[in-house]
Protein 1
Amino acid sequence: MSVAYIFIFLLLLIAGAPIVFALLIGPGLSLALDDQQQFYPAILARLYNGIDSFPLMAVPFFILAGELMNSGGVTAAIFRFAQAMIGHVRGGLAQVNIVTSMLFATLSGSAVADASAVGKMLVPEMVKEGYSRRYSAAVTASAAILGPVIPPSGLMILYAFVMNVSVAALFAAGAVVGLLMVSGLMLVTMILARRRGFPKAERKATWGERRKALTQTLPALMTPVVLLGGVLSGAFTPTEAAAVACFYALIVGIFVMRTLKIADLPRVFVTAAAQSGVILLLVGAAVSFAWIVTVSGFAESLASLLTGVTTNVYLLLLLVNLLLFVVGMFLDAGPAILILGPVLGPMFVGLGVDPLHFAVVMCVNVTVGLATPPMGLVLFVASSVSGEKPAAIALEMAPYLLMHAFIIFLITYAPAIVTTLPRMLGFA
């Protein structure tokens, strides 16, 4: 079988075709050109089987939970809590943006949702306080990347589904890496605040105000505690955890915080269903594409090409980081995982790399790609909420992207950062 589908797929992407159609049309045309239409039923079978998965049900459930929390005004409560805690330092509102994104990530698991929800609220606030609109959008986009890294992560669930890696282990590793990324972003912000003279709050919040903000936000902040505690303790599976998240979000929004109305539920359900439908169709198409990649022998050819350059694992990890960075510039994180995971994962595991370690390196790489031009979705969301051009935001993000690159380098060549906690908990 020829690999013409690769070129057809790339041409369709360049032409601006939706990713799901490019994934299906590429192999379809390639098989027709090779006169191998007998494989069409196999492609359709894998499209259906790719969606028909119990573990994958966690994705739409987490999307619904995120929508319920966001519609219930949780983002505003998180903002008030973060503002009370660290809003008084120089560049405090930028630090609040990062902390708000981190806390929101524990509810949504989505970089796009993070950038949209946090950006709509904080970009106008930052501009009002004296920050440039360009910088406000840049810090929002940089922090939104945390969404798919900090658990519960839909991206990591996808990787676990494709590559048969423990979801609990990925969540534990993601928590460590996510905190490392948060620390890096806050350090960069602190340096920029001193150099640029960022504003700070007129006064420091009292302990009474902080306690009140914590009390108001605590029900939402307990969400990741309930979910991760349940998954890590073995009380329920990740899929069951996602269902628990929906129920918890519903109870908190309607009865505890009283910010979610019954009348809002139809809109929330429709929005979550639409988002889930897009993602699941994409998963099915990507599974079909990955099967074609395997059958055609392209995966083996790529592996041979990389190992032909060098057999040094450290150099190969550097090459794959560069490859994933470039791929992330053009391909969304989910499709990148679904397409390249089955290609690269087995190769590096065969070379002695821990499968959990490679999983996290790959997930973080493609996630950072969400904020890099020309196709970064988070970049376009930040542009939409701020009114700034994506190119201008990307230039302003340079210090943050350098920090993300440093952290990727760190977790690539210090695998203990990734694997220690999952092993201590017995997941790896």
Protein 2
Amino acid sequence: MTNMDLIKDIKSYEVLDSRGNPTVAAKVLLNNGVSEMAFVPSGASTGKYEANEKRDLEESRYQGKGVLKAVNSINTTLKSLLINQDPADIKQIDKLMCEEDGTSDKSHLGANAILAVSMACTKVSAKNFNMPLHNFIAKKGEEMGMSINQSLPIPMMNILNGGAHADNPIDFQEFMIQPSGFETFARALQCGVEIFHTLKGILSSKGLSTSVGDEGGFAPKLNTPEEALDLIIEAIENSGYKPGEEVNLCLDVAATEFYKKDYYDVVGMNKKFSSSELVKYLQSLRENYPISSIEDGLDEDDWSGWGELVLSLGNNTQLVGDDLFVTNPTRIKKGIERSSANSVLVKVNQIGTISETLEAIKISKENNFSTVISHRSGETEDTFIADLAVGLGSGQIKTGAPSRSDRVAKYNRLLIIEKDSGLRFYDKVNL
């Protein structure tokens, strides 16, 4: 490292995400003239234990969703803090920012401000070393003691939207396809795209809406999960693929969104479930459909219910904690100790730094929990998570339907990585 490789300047911008809401972008410039930018995503369905996304809360501007305070945190405090620091020492960069923030949830400076800089430092370091970003991320993982086997991830494609991602009666948030029975990522993606377009035709033929939700999936007026799953099975078969062999189904229940203190209010089905009843219902879905993965089947604080879910389905189903874990190493450790899931959803903005994200993945892998790298419903053109999924060999990525440029950008990046790197496709989920 020379003085030329150190941070010369940091600049932040208020930009827009895929929902047209403000978000934070940051550019890091080195003394040698190398620079890179990063854009921060934002969620609609958020867990209460996520790091704090700083908003201006001025109703006269962007309905209170402006991020000028977070932008200013970067342009003043974080810029002064990090000038002449080594951007490649991501752990130290993140440590300095978190110490400066001084809160447990990054609420002082804003997790969106801290993450923008953390991502930009990671990206500019890869560029400075003339390395693909996924290779640099793999290097950082190895430095942390992770055993890295880079691979192209299986896409988990949200082709029917419900819950907070759509204006329809379905309470479950995502109905996904997981094309895994293929030799390459490109072939798996092709399969998913063909099913997506076939589904559009089926919906249209039945007089159902083909408008799309936040994550690019269709959002027809359906009431029950079974209706959604039946339509997807039909689309898989009509596309010439075999459900349960070449293509599995995945659910994001997002149960926290409809949990009411001591019961689950599934309005679309006109039913109220206890924890045990919801577990039994999910078990019945698993028995009747080729479902390989269920995310947030229970509320973020329903630890006993999660334990019951693992006992019921943990041997043959990936049980993913999103709101449960919020990419937080402390909560992941708690879940491991209590056997409350067997998989962790990884969202960089839930924790707010890249080094803490890597730590969360490390803990998960060391305890035989699978990991799924995930987008947010409010996305940007930034493709960072594609390289993250490849670089750490996570094996799975959630980045929406093959629709909307913010989602397709990640798929296109993965296609390019596969072609340029020759890395293998992760063709199975290890449970």
